[in-house]
């Protein structure tokens, strides 16, 4: 297959998920790092969408982590990200991957966005050494605006997140690990999808204690270490004391 071109933004869980999938498949690719929010403008021109991750393989364009992982399985069969249809875990892996993409990712994103609203300067820590083709000095004063735009797009506000919801989601992940659906030696698509959100949440100091002692925390091992993070106090005071 031709060399792929992957479009990402720094710190994104779904982007890290796809990069891990490409590495598992030993697919060569070039990584294009976009500045936060720039995908809304340049995405339609570069790959026909306004979200990341997105990938170009020859003339083919695929947008979204789930779609990309399914396409990778079709192009490179080994190792499989989704079990064979006759596998005993096939349906459970498909459901766990769907849930990780459609449910957990939204929860993690809203919590992250609330933290970013309260600590906008922390947004720069997630850029790491990424070459954004945009001067950091230009992005720095825009961090509060970027935080507000992401919060608006993702409907993130203090009352939109809460410890009881997060605890229930973590219980579901731990149950899938106990059942052998995820958490194996070699990750499947559900492992990678869920790991992206877990790694995201572990970067928030106020949330980390609720996750780090659970089996779910170990899923982060499937992805490279997270760059950046939020210090204590990024989440509302009323939320933090009851997080366990």
Structure, explained:
This protein has 244 residues and is α+β, with helices and mostly antiparallel strands. It folds into 2 domains: 4-75, Glutaredoxin (3-Layer(aba) Sandwich); 90-242, Up-down Bundle (Glutathione S-transferase Yfyf (Class Pi), Chain A, domain 2). The protein has helices spanning 13-24, 39-46, 65-75, 90-118, 136-139, 143-153, 163-178, 189-202, 208-211; strands spanning 4-8, 29-33, 54-57, 60-63. The protein has a 4-stranded mixed beta sheet with strand order 2-1-3-4, covered by helices on one side. β1, α1 and β2 form a beta-alpha-beta unit. α1 packs parallel to α3 (65-75) and α1 crosses α8. The protein is globular, with a radius of gyration of 18 Å. It starts with a strand and ends in a 33-residue tail after the last helix.
Structural domain tally: 2
- Share in helix: 40-55%
User: How many β strands by DSSP?
Assistant: 4
Main sheet: strands, sense, barrel? 4 strands, mixed
CATH topology of the largest domain: Glutathione S-transferase Yfyf (Class Pi), Chain A, domain 2
User: How do the SSEs run, as a string of H and E?
Assistant: EHEHEEHHHHHHH
* Distance between the first and last residues' Cα: 47 Å
Uncertain ranges: none
CATH class category of the largest domain: Mainly Alpha
Q: How many DSSP H or I helices? A: 9
β-sheet strand percentage: 5-15%
Strand order of the largest sheet: 2-1-3-4
- Tertiary shape: globular
**Average pLDDT over all residues:** 88
Radius of gyration from CA coordinates: 18 Å
């Amino acid at each position: 297959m031709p060399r792929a071109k992957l479009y990402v933004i720094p710190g994104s869980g779904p982007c890290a998920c796809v990069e891990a999938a490409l590495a598992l498949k030993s697919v060569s690719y070039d990584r294009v790092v976009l500045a936060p929010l720039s995908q809304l403008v340049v995405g339609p021109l570069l790959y026909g969408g306004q979200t990341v991750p997105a990938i170009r393989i020859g003339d083919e364009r695929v947008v979204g982590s789930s779609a990309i992982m399914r396409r990778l399985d079709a192009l490179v069969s080994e190792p499989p990200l989704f079990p064979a249809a006759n596998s005993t875990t096939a349906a459970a892996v498909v459901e766990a991957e769907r849930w990780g993409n459609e449910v957990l990712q939204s929860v993690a994103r809203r919590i992250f966005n609330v933290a970013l609203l309260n600590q906008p300067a922390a947004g720069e820590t997630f850029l790491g050494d990424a070459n954004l083709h945009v001067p950091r000095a230009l992005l720095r004063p825009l961090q509060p605006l970027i935080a507000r735009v992401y919060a608006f797009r993702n409907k993130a506000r203090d009352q939109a997140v809460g410890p009881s919801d997060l605890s229930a989601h973590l219980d579901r992940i731990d149950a899938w690990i106990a059942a052998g659906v995820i958490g194996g030696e070699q990750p499947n698509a559900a492992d990678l999808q869920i790991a992206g959100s877990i790694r995201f949440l572990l970067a928030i100091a106020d949330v980390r204690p609720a996750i780090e002692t659970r089996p779910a925390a170990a899923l982060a091992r499937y992805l490279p270490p997270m760059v950046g993070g939020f210090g204590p106090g990024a989440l509302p005071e009323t939320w933090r004391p009851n997080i366990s």
